[in-house]
Amino acid sequence: xxxxxxxxxxxxxxxxxxxxxxxxxxxxxxxxxxxxxxxxxxxxxxxxxxxxxxxxxxxxxxxxxxxxxxxxxxxxxxxxxxxxxxxxxxxxxxxxxxxxxxxxxxxxxxxxxxxxxxxxxxxxxxxxxxxxxxxxxxxxxxxxxxxxxxxxxxxxxxxxxxxxxxxxxxxxxxxxxxxxxxxxxxxxxxxxxxxxxxxxxxxxxxxxxxxxxxxxxxxxxxxxxxxxxxxxxxxxxxxxxxxxxxxxxxxxxxxxxxxxxxxxxxxxxxxxxxxxxxxxxxxxxxxxxxxxxxxxxxxxxxxxxxxxxxxxxxxxxxxxxxxxxxxxxxxx
Length: 332
Hints:
This protein is an alpha/beta fold and 332 residues long. It has 15 helices and seven strands. A five-stranded parallel sheet has the order 2-3-4-1-5, with helices on both faces.
């Protein structure tokens, strides 16, 4: 029987955060009285300790919610412990697990489906969640936004909503005492105040400019320092570069590539395609494979997070392409 106090939210960082914030008040209603909310990361705290906390309440608390991040890193022995707990959970504790990736056939997903609720946000929900998130942030700041300015914000974020919160915070500061954010203000913010634009990293890679690439990476880490969100963001950008280059070599015109990939035609498209025409397809393939390997190593504790990403950037922006350390190649 499904337990209404056990959840797994699987998806990218932005969608997990949005789902968690939407779920939290619902779970609080299921628990008695005042609830204590604690957050854990399984890479820092053993699951055995988290479950020990789950079996007893903090002093004076009548219920508690434990948010457990990076649950996809749980090993088999930890999953054994989790299964034991799920068979006899503490009635006044809610567990909300989060995972960047959770395979349908994986044991974690099967356990949650058996004993709790799996939440896997659909890609179609992203635009709705982004709009809700933007509205909530601006309401908190006592500001409104015009439809045109809202569209500009989403265009600037592109496929990287993980940076949306930081961008809104900066835009609110930029707006000052003005109650409404309009298109003109958003355009001025983008041109004069944004220290780094979301697609500056792609431009630095195409220009083979390691110093600029590292500068942009550092700025992006200031906006969101989660290594797994950053890996996903960079993978999406480099994959888009590879797809665009592949289509160009197939003979498609830039306008056709933009339409095929659903890209935005603005924001320096001409310079983008001129630079991409000079960039080697094989280098992009090697970069994707190395990024895939880095993702695996990061999740198994064999990579150093940001320093490893910096080394990857130095490699892809080197004047001459360097050989991959991997034997195979991947285009996904």
